[in-house]
Amino acid sequence: MGQKRATLADVARLAGLSKTTASMVLNGREGTRLSAEAHQRVFAAAEELGYRPNVAARSLRTRKTATIAFVSDIVATTRFAGGLIRGALDAARERDHVLLITETQGDAAFERYAIEAMLDRQVDGVIYAAMASRRLTVPDAILGGPVVLLNATSGEDLPSVLPDDERAGAAVTEILLRQGHHDHIALIGRNELKESDPEVSIAAGARLRGVRSALAAAGVGLFAECFCVDWLPEHGYAAMRTLLSRSPRPSAVICMNDRLAFGAYQALGEAGLSVPGDVSVVSFDDDPIAAWLRPGLTTAALPHERMGRRAVEILLDGGAAGPSLVPMPLRRRRSTAVPAAR
């Protein structure tokens, strides 16, 4: 036979207080009526007895299980977006909740199974997340309870948490404008599909709007725009080579993500040009590669950990429908300078 599990009554008896008072102290609801010494007696008694609250019994009383479902497409196995889970885990732990995580890999049948399994466990709500910021179709099964979309939107009237890509677009552009790049700023990464289809991306259009709004406020336009079939290094490389064939060449380049910027760096190096001595470069995402480039790349960071935290906060505290935009902090490194003399 194992040792008998300590009860709340045992804790109260050892602390010399009523069961109700001990419960309120342990659950943080007692207020200031008791002395600090009495509070310490309760916590010391609980520790001495190895007391653990009966979660199942509490769930029956409160109809809450202190669990949150985190359903994603490929976030869990994506190093870049893993901050979404880290932030949600930290926020859940601070609120005495457990995160149940599943990843669907885009498999609709498995998604239905996973969601049903989590709902069978009476989770208190669902965070429905995407690795790439885009519009999703939300499964009907999770619409009956609290739901927060993370890094995604939908056609439903649901709360969502998104990075503020539009403001970030303006911010990286303003860095270049303040340094004197007005007439020769080029953009690498235009992509009609990403900009026009929200099921593919909602970041591309937002970043472009931010760039254009900052330029319009300064009374200037883009010197050149390069379309890319994808936001990968080889496309940034090819686009930068095209820009360098122009006369005059751009004094600064805005890349729609860090992988494009990586390719642009390679093209500039092959041409015998330096960053930022000849061409300044700014970008988005703060991929780990951004800090390893030489010089380090100035970029607007995706605030994934803060977004994960915000999703848990909205789920547990309630929040208005529609997007909650999380600022993208600027990572200022050494990839920009005043324009070189022409």
TrEMBL record:
Domain named HTH lacI-type: residues: 6-62
Pfam families per the UniProt record, alphabetical: LacI, Peripla_BP_3
Keyword Repressor: yes
Superkingdom of source: Bacteria
PROSITE patterns membership: HTH_LACI_2
Keywords annotated in UniProt: DNA-binding, Repressor, Transcription, Transcription regulation
InterPro entries with a match to the protein in the record: HTH_LacI, LacI/GalR-like_sensor, Lambda_DNA-bd_dom_sf, Peripla_BP_I
Keyword Transmembrane helix: no
Gene3D superfamilies linked: 3.40.50.2300, lambda repressor-like DNA-binding domains
Lineage, top ranks: Bacteria, Bacillati, Actinomycetota, Actinomycetes, Micromonosporales
Protein name: Transcriptional regulator, LacI family
SMART domains found in the cross-reference section: HTH_LACI
Organism: Micromonospora krabiensis
Molecular functions (GO terms): DNA-binding transcription factor activity; transcription cis-regulatory region binding
